Sequence to fold (474 residues):
Amino acid sequence: MRPLWTVAEVVKATGGRPEGLSDGPISSISIDSREIAPEALFVAIRGDTHDGHDFVAKAIEAGATAALVSEAYHAAHGGKNLIVVLDTLKALEQLGIAARARNRGQIIAVTGSAGKTTTKEAIRTVLAAYGETHYSIKSFNNHWGVPLMLARLPREAQFGVFEIGMNHAGEITPLVQMVRPHIAVITTVAAAHLEFFDSVADIAAAKAEIFLGLEPGGTALLNADHDHLHILFAHARAAGVGKVVTYGFDESADWHIGRVDTSASTTLAEVTHGADRYDLRLQVPGRHMVANAVAALAVAQISGEGTRAAVAALAKFGAPEGRGLTLRLGPNAKPLLLVDESYNANVASMTAAMDLYGSVRPPDGRKFLVLGDMLEMGPQGPQLHAGLANAVLKTGATEIYLVGAAMRSLADELRHRAENDRDIPAVTHMPSAEEISDTVLSALAYGDAVMVKGSKGVRLSPLVQKIRERFQNA
Fold:
């Protein structure tokens, strides 16, 4: 089997200059010196907090075949086992473009205000049933994550699934023009990153940039369950997209989701597409998870692979960590039920997660809800946070913990309602996850249920980890 790259191929793709380096295989590409594998290429990227050039020596010592560095670094430090370029991020983009050009597989790109990563995971799970599938790991979906994932695309891969994110207009365009997908998926349009947009309609227009990189004859696959579908259709027409397919609960959707039955750990759903009917069984609860799965089912059909193996693959699909992963910790007879939604949050994902949590029943105890700020909400932030009150109360939570400055608006709204309704539980609000962590941990007990949900920047994932460590051993 041919290596991912050779030194000569990297030099050619980037226009770089080898220093103290002969040709040889490169089996992996990394921007993290802590994750160097044998025959790796280390790409020294200057980030917001760290400069990868500070770790070049460490990467070489760890076994990297070569390091991709800037002319400025080489002028200051010299060295060997180097490929020298003017700009390492630009060189990484060039590697990604070259990897995409040599691959002959089906390429799928996924964006949206919520559900990107879970939908990407569902799609890659389905396509893996048909052939070698390369996909974006974690949420590597930004200006360095997308070219890095592209640069790792094996030349022989039959499928590539890439997540594309944004928080400003114009960010998707250069990324999707590198990816050049055959299928472009938009999971939803909702209030997210409003700090940088005047309206949700503007967010829809920014998401529609994904059409600008769609390959000729490609397909746009759109979730129909939001109020801005018409904007996406208009942008698809303007971009010359020849085929648009929809999915969702909306009755007009090409892939229509009908009856859904959700339990604490599984979901059953009826899906129709033309004259065909599918009975889906997912190893994850939640109506929103059904939509993610149906997107994957549609991708399989659009790709020409059929749907039989896709349905079987989805039967084994579960939620990724931080995005609805449900764990039973401790003794089987009386576990602590943990719903981990700690990775990200906006109005759409908050509402969907709490709708799901409303169906969760504690094994033998209380029901905790821990919510962190939705970041980048802009001037509408206080109103959007306070507007979560109804969804919070519908969860049936008996213990409510709110984290962050923006969550004060929700705390105030719930406390105001409690003045006239004694059934509304008391609310604990603290400025940070660090401050509320011990309070939550000391209150939890086996038999309880707890959901943790908030934007990544609120740093609720360490709280989830502490809960797991404390309660996972009976």
Residues 208 and 411 are 35 Å apart (CA to CA).
